Amino acid sequence: MLSVPLTTAAQNPIISGQFTADPTARVFNNKVYLYPSHDILPPEGTRQDWFSMEDYHVFSSEDLVNWQDHGVIVTQNKVPWVRPNSYSMWAPDCVYRNGKYYFYFPSAPAKGGGFGVGVAIADNPEGPFIPEPEPIKGINGIDPCVLQASDGNAYIFWGAGRCAKLKENMKELADDNPKEIVKWGNREMEMVGVNCLKGLPNRQAEGPFAFEYNGNYYLTYPYVRENTEVLAYAMSKNPMGPYEYKGIIMAEHANGCWTNHHSIVNYKGQWYLFYHHNAYSPKDDKRRSAQIEKLYFNEDGTIQEVKPTLRGVGINQANSRIDVDRYSSASEGVELAYLDTANTFRGWEVKLPKKGSYITYNDVDFTGANARTYVTANVKADKNTSIVIRENNKNGKVIARLNLKVEPEGGNNGGMMMRRRSYVGQWHAVTTTISHVPKGVTNLYIACEGEHPASIDWMQFKTPPTYFTSATAAPAKPDAGGFIRRWTILEPIDKPNRSNTVFTDSYLREHFNMEYFPNQFTIVPEDGQRVKVGKQRLTWHKLDSERFNVKLFRFADGLQKQIYGVLFWNVTVINCPEEIKDVRLAVGSNSASMWWLNGEEVLLLSGDRRMVKDDAVSPRITLKKGINILRGAVINGPGMSDFCVRFINENEKPVTEFEIK
Ligand code: FUB
Predict the structure, then answer these.
(1) Residue 329, domain CATH
(2) Distance from the CA of 157 to the center of ligand 1, in angstroms?
(3) Of 265, 295, 325, at which residue does a domain stop?
(4) Which of 345, 418, 441, 546 falls between 20 and 30 A from 651, CA-CA?
(5) How far apart are CA 422 and CA 409, in angstroms?
(6) What domain range includes position 35?
(7) pLDDT tens digits along 493-509
(8) pTM of the full predicted structure?
(9) How far is CA 615 from CA 585, 589, 629, in A?
(10) Which mutation among 229, 259, 288 tests ligand 1's pocket best, with the greatest number of atoms within 8 A of CB?
(11) Are 451 and 384 in contact (CB under 8 A)?
């Protein structure tokens, strides 16, 4: 059995990349398992305008946001009684009883017409499921659902609300003697069990889903009220009825999608309606996708009508990609469009057509966000404009403002890789640090603030991992490996280089020795001290690195500074209680670097280098008693700059008998 991990967001539809119809959700082992049927595009030579379903996958989720696909559990040509290549694996169900999982599914039998219902049995909810050789005797129809009632019995419902008791083995009906003859078109069929929808609105009813709650039995089912299906329900005090019709759970799909099919489940105290719609297949309502909404009961046990939403249920983590086009609400005129009509699984974009247009997006969890959190949004515009993200509503605190600056394609926007290009009408990422950090779960209000329309695909609030902390007043020690982690680092100097092949000794000597700022080789900078380098105003940051290698790339990225084509100056102050002779400076750097101890050049790492511990080692040097100033410059073109530095002794053991101020 293949397990294909799949991460989707909380929104509707809940599964992307494949169609998932007739979603039956069940809670097993504190997780929700979803057993949908699996619409596919009809293979050549089969009816093109009809359902085409050859197998079943099972999915599971602990948060209704991230769904794992456990792969195919039952497939048509491996079920002995199913007519090969009949593509009729319609709506299934799965229940747990007596230590086993029973998966019920309808299909076209090899012998006889119509539909039969089979069982496949497993030890685990995700399978492997072993199909029984024959379908359940006596059942002629589709859409099985098993109700395990508090009277201790299991009842199977199918077709248009037919119901019969199951034997304890869950594979046979307690009584499979026909009870009535039912006409289907001009066919007459012998039917077992009872018709629980007798006398209730039931035109073309199918997909029964029965459950018990608070002493009531609910028989919920799709039927055709006018032209397409609604989800309706009836209640009873007995599993096999008689049932009393109560009303609609969900009205017809607005776009004319003919079917709907559902299940209702309580998970962690909240009721949910799983249903389907053809969101990924707007021109073909035989390819459907599962969606979820919250469902509520009234005090008298009746069910409140549920409206389909784009947003669905679940809480998005702010630091994962949020498809805000699945919004909770929108102002008038907001437009939705597929990103790619040839591959609708790529999702949607939302267009804010004018200044003041907005969408809201509920339930985003900012736990873990901090002042360094930044938002990246995939956006597009035809003219410069801006988007504001606020907390909760239009008067809420501003979380971030996104400026969309676009230029005609082919235009010059500053050269090299310093800036990401953002062309007129093309998707591009805009990143900015957030100005207000929401606490916990909050709703987003996202509005067009500029004079021109803006489109959004997704946004993500990333909090950079902590690579550095501010240096404390107390002196630091080298780490156990002797690595010096306390450095005062200057923000990156703009030093454009398209490749690192230019880093020859002569280039480096020339470029490391030229003056970028006054007192470059003598300064012992304070935290926060500023210097002017050409047109750049740069700040020194006194930091402790969380890792043995000082990640200059992360340092720059965290400050929203340029990360490529850069030169970093680094200074550290070493205080030796005694003179230490015959040590060597051992350095690894990405890319090239040069190092000076007490004003003397001690080491040069030239060429296009990777950061490797002790990549280059200096001749023997002496650390004098008292203060020693170690200075380094690291240069990089397109690479991710970092370095690691330590002193080693004659036996190549780390030197650690000093403090770092
Ligand atoms: O998915 C095929 C059929 O469409 C189901 O069995 C019905 O309930 C309807 O959803």
Answers:
(1) 2.60.120.260
(2) 14
(3) 295
(4) 546
(5) 8
(6) 4-295
(7) 999 999 999 999 999 99
(8) 0.78
(9) 10, 8, 21
(10) 259
(11) no
